[in-house]
Specification:
alpha/beta, nine-stranded mixed beta sheet, 24 helices, 25 strands
Length: 759
């Protein structure tokens, strides 16, 4: 747009009047500058808009309430002009220019003042009416003439007093007790929100004084505030990015830097690695900012140049305002519903549950970000392909985008943030998802090569539990992981010593490329890649047949684990057999169903992840396991005590799987039970040490895996030396090793960090 030009943009069902203020003689602030006020009013006389945006190097946004006040001013002027209140018939009966001239000038002066300063116009009108009322008292035979003019002034006053802005200002000034000088009063009514002009999304901070601040922290230089609203169920998640509170000269540098580097396309940089690309461009941005600052006599510190470069990178090679939300690893999911621009983004916080943000995403920014996603994924997204599903590796986030015709109201987004480090069973114990004995049971299932389906609804923690159980695998086993979207943190697991080969399959909901392999074909290929643990990220459709076929004929001779949507062991049998077409006899290849769910205790609005069922699939039944005693429950959840009930005697007498393990390993029930208890005790010891010494890292994968591997090595050494495991001796030695090698190291790190912070 050219300076002074205006355009109306529709976004999220709202119409925004955007006026370009670059190069204008006055600033883009209607509270401070009467010329800006008059300019906006003049344009609103022709344009219909819900909000007004004055754009320079940053944008001032006036909300719907403020715009309605401005529109009232514009409508009043239109009405007064339509009535031609300055015409002689409205000014009196006389035709003498000596009398009509001053009245005509007074009305036009009031009319012109309304455009830029309606309250001053109102005060001027009142003053004029007082003078005319005095004239009427002494008018004599000219009374009718004066009353006509006074009637016109009263009409104008009536129309002005119907305006909500005049009503609000009268109330404000009566409380103030005096009339402030200049345009000071307007700052109380036209305090705009500000954002850089190159950012499409809007951020608001309205009514925070009504909210209770419950938490705050930093995410990549951005302040995050968690509020509780007295009348709302969900928490408020507010961010305050530095780019929304910069002085004008820094906005100038941001805009100019973005313009300068927009066409920069170096041939020597390998942009397949987004991390390397970011490092390269940050250097370019820092140099450009430094050069522009020098040329424009703007003084910046080294840190300020780096901070501005980070902002430019966020909105050029990064993901805009979304990058802040997706960088907060306390967040698990981010949702943007259509129509965009209508409602704020909302998210799911690991501690505070579902929260409403103070960010409103725009169609403009959505189009930009979708273009980036298309380029990164190499997949189409249009009306013929309204689904885009892929993984954003640099932010470890799974992305799902939908558009028309699937999404009737336009583009919508869902983001699932993956944990940066793998979950561990000890972390689940610490979070009360299950107790340490249950952790021992799950660890033993992995060790005994059980075939398991981890069952639950979306958000129940299926994938998190799967990765925690993968960390129980001995490092000498090869593992094949098959996923259509990369949710399991395989690179981090490899760094921990696990031998893993990833297989990427075509997404189930379309949007994939022709070169991508179907889940079924990938699974059949995996079965030809040698003896390996097999992990299926999610059992969805036709690959289920191939999986169970392989399990039945013994093609898989090791641990098999996968996740599947469901609510119980019986529901999974029903889905696998009736929906996915797996024969009932094949389903018996499943050894256990591990069921998780989000629990709302006593009907609370908060949800807590819990393991609610651990069920063995028995083998001696034909058609319906529910009717033929085909399931053996090892544990079931009791919400009244927030714990699992264990059925030890039933397990001892009826578990076909456990009896098979005892035969194949030459163990009796007591030996198996001791092994389970010992594994559980290792998890509990880590949790207790973490809580006592306040060292959360002890439960992270780096240390949990080292602790588990030492347990395996120590127990194996006892078997080699004595032919059996002496658990009291084993546990005593293991605990001493943990204290010496892990706990002491973390305590030293904690003390060193505290000393550094103090200095």
């Amino acid at each position: 747009m050219a300076p002074g030009q205006a355009v109306v943009k529709s976004d999220g069902g709202k119409k925004r009047l955007v006026i370009d203020y670059r190069g204008m003689a006055w600033g883009p602030d209607i509270a401070q500058y009467g010329q800006a006020f008059a300019d906006v009013v003049e344009k609103l006389r022709e344009a219909d808009a819900d909000e007004v945006v004055l754009s320079e190097y940053y944008e001032r946004i006036y909300d719907e309430k403020q715009t309605s006040w401005l529109r009232e001013v514009a409508d009043l002027i239109n009405n007064l002009e339509a009535d031609a209140v300055w015409s002689p018939s409205h000014l009196g009966k006389t035709t003498e220019s000596k009398t009509l001239g001053p009245r005509h000038d007074a009305v036009l002066r009031i009319l012109n003042l309304i455009k830029s300063d309606p309250f001053k116009a109102y005060l001027t009108l009142i003053q004029e009416m007082k003078g005319v009322a005095g004239q009427a008292a002494n008018a004599g035979p000219n009374l009718e003439d004066v009353q006509i003019y006074l009637g016109t002034l009263r009409y104008i006053r009536q129309k002005m007093e119907e305006m909500k802005l005049i009503q609000a200002m009268k109330d404000y000034l009566s409380q103030l007790g005096s009339i402030p000088e200049g345009r000071t009063a307007y700052h109380a009514f036209f305090e705009s929100s500000i954002k850089p002009s190159f950012i499409g999304s809007r951020i608001f901070f309205t009514a925070t004084e009504q909210l209770e601040l419950v938490d705050q922290y930093d995410v990549d230089g951005t302040k995050v505030y968690i509020y509780r609203h007295p009348d709302q169920v969900q928490y408020q998640y507010f961010i305050n990015p530095p780019e929304y509170s910069l002085p004008p000269e820094k906005y100038f540098l941001l805009e100019k830097t973005k313009e300068v580097v927009a066409q920069h396309r170096p041939e020597s940089v390998q942009f397949l690695d987004i991390t390397q690309a970011r490092k390269y461009f940050r250097k370019v941005y820092v140099a450009t900012i430094a050069d522009l600052a020098l040329k424009n006599n703007i003084k910046l510190t080294v840190e300020e140049k780096e901070d501005l470069a980070s902002i430019v990178a966020r909105y050029t090679i990064g993901y805009g305002i979304l990058e802040i939300l997706l960088s907060d690893r306390r967040v698990t999911d981010v949702y943007i519903d259509s129509p965009l621009g209508d409602k704020p983004i909302y998210l799911v916080h690991g501690k505070y549950g579902q929260c409403q943000t103070n960010v409103i995403f725009s169609n403009e920014e959505a189009r930009s970000i979708v273009s980036r996603f298309r380029a990164l994924s190499g997949r189409p997204f249009d009306e013929g392909h309204p689904i885009l599903d892929f993984d954003l590796e640099d932010l470890q986030t799974r992305i799902a985008v939908i558009g028309k015709p699937l999404a009737l109201d336009g583009i919508a987004f869902a983001f699932r943030l993956h944990k940066q480090t793998p979950w561990t069973l000890a972390q689940f114990v610490d979070g009360k998802a299950f107790d340490s004995f249950t952790a021992g049971v799950l660890s033993f299932f992995v060790d005994a090569q059980a075939s398991m389906l981890i069952v639950g609804s979306r958000g129940a923690g299926k994938t998190s539990l799967l990765q925690a159980m993968m960390l129980e695998l001995p490092q000498n086993l090869r593992t094949l992981v098959q996923e259509d979207t990369q949710e399991l943190p395989v690179p981090q697991m490899k760094k921990l010593g696990l031998n893993i080969q990833r297989l990427k399959t075509r997404p189930p909901l379309g949007g994939g490329t022709e070169s991508e392999v179907s889940a079924e074909d990938a699974l059949r290929t995996a079965l030809r890649l040698g003896d390996s643990v097999l992990i299926v990220g999610e059992v969805r459709s036709t690959e289920a047949k191939a999986l169970y076929e392989a399990m039945r004929v013994g093609a898989v001779g090791n641990v098999v684990m996968g996740t599947i949507h469901g609510e119980s062991a019986y529901s999974i049998w029903d889905r696998v057999v009736n929906d996915l077409g797996v024969p009932t006899t094949s389903f018996k290849a499943t050894d256990f169903c591990v069921v998780a769910a989000p629990i709302r205790f006593k009907g609370s609005l908060k949800r807590f992840r819990r393991l609610i069922e651990l069920t063995e699939v028995k083998k001696d039944w034909s058609e319906d396991p529910g009717k033929e005693d085909g399931f053996l429950q090892w544990m079931t959840f009791d919400a009244n005590k927030d714990g699992l009930d264990l059925f030890k005697e039933a397990i001892k007498s009826k578990s076909e799987w456990l009896q098979k393990v005892q035969r194949m390993r030459g163990l009796d029930f007591d030996a198996v039970w001791s092994e389970i208890e010992a594994r559980g005790q290792t998890k509990q010891y880590l949790v207790d040490a973490k809580n006592k010494l306040e060292i959360p890292r002890l439960l992270e994968a780096e240390y949990a895996v080292r602790a588990h591997m030492h347990y395996l090595l120590a127990s194996e050494k006892q078997r080699e030396e004595t032919g059996k495991v002496d658990y009291p001796t084993l546990m005593a030695g293991w605990k001493e090793w943990v204290d010496r090698e892990l706990v002491a190291d973390l305590v030293r790190q904690k003390e060193s960090a505290a000393q550094g912070a103090a200095e």
